Amino acid sequence: MHNHRSTTVPPTRAATGGTGPAGPCRPHDVYVLSEDESRLLDGIAVEVSTAYDTVEDPRFIADARLFAQRLPLGLRRWIEQVRLSADLGSFRIRGHRLRDADLPPTPPDFEREPARPALAPEVCLVLFGVLLGDVFGWETQQAGRLVHDIVPSEQEQKSQTSASSAVELGWHTEDAFHPYRADYLGLACVRNPDRVPTTLAELRSLELSERTRSVLSQPRFHQRPDTSHSPTGSDDVGAWSDPPLARVLSGMAGSRSLCVDADFTVVADDEDMEAEAALEELKREIESRLGDLVLEPGDYLFLDNQRCVHGRRPFRARFDGTDRWLKRVSVTRDLRRMAEAGVTATKRTARAVLAS
């Protein structure tokens, strides 16, 4: 992948990182926390976990932006700079010092009840997220929680969901099928002893022909819902209404926004060979640009969900409390536009299936 450095990021606070079998993965502007900044995060997290029942407490969600204003000034300035960047698809915060001994075992499945007291990584993930927008969840995912557990599940080892482990999780735009999908996806690494890579490719790195961009910018595709949102909890997409026609690329010259899922984006018309060829060219290009990034405990990765696709390499899960464990949060730039999905300032869970 190409190495692009945002000129807005102070060079003393930025770094590149991540390598893997696909070659160097270096599009990530990185903010490295100092020891003092890491301690400040811990102090804020302790205060939050003492004052509120859990990270899901509506009072905390309402107050989160106030707490976020107490984050280190350099970090806040940097997040604002990358938020306003012209084409940055992902960015990372590193150096939050976590002690594994202070953390509970990796759960065998997502936790239906949030941690009491709240864990420092999930508190920080929300606070970083609200500097980008507003956090929200889904009625059909993880019991409607706002902060998700990304852990391997014995029952889902070979699924195309974040609970899989034995198979590669195909690259995708998060919730590509939904008109109100997240603008940003935030991940906090709690534990990753096997150094399982997250895979990434950014829109700005893709080299597509002009004709392919034009075809992908036309509504000639369907974004089928993935099974993690299925009302029946199965592969039966018949449980959903027919997906609308959709564009894969949008914006000026098809270069502003990418929405695609390796496994769930299909051509609307089986006889549309031109659209099929364009989609295949895009898939090949993404595969050629896909790089690996290993998240370490205390790393926070934010993905611009309109400029970046992501996935995960397969790994052998042990299911013994020591497996990879990430926290995940979805962020919207504009909470009000999600009213059709049932989201309000006080109700942050979105409907996956919209009323027709």
TrEMBL record:
Annotated region Disordered: where?
1-27, 214-241
Identify the InterPro entries for this entry. Answer: Alpha-KG_dependent_hydroxylase (IPR053447), Clavaminate_syn-like (IPR014503), TauD-like_sf (IPR042098), TauD/TfdA-like (IPR003819)
Task: State the family named in the UniProt similarity comment for this chain.
Answer: Belongs to the clavaminate synthase family.
Where are stretches of biased composition, namely Low complexity? Answer: 7-16
Alphabetized UniProt keyword annotations: Iron, Metal-binding, Oxidoreductase
Q: To which species is this protein native?
A: Streptomyces parvus
According to the UniProt entry, its GO molecular function terms are:
iron ion binding; oxidoreductase activity
The name of this protein is: Arginine beta-hydroxylase, Fe(II)/alpha-ketoglutarate-dependent
> One Pfam annotation, family name?
TauD
- Tell me which domain of life the UniProt entry assigns to the organism this sequence originates from: Bacteria
Quote the record's binding site residues for Fe cation.
Answer: H172, E174, H310
What residues does the TauD/TfdA-like domain cover? 140-329
Q: Could you say which residues bind 2-oxoglutarate here? A: T212, R324, R328
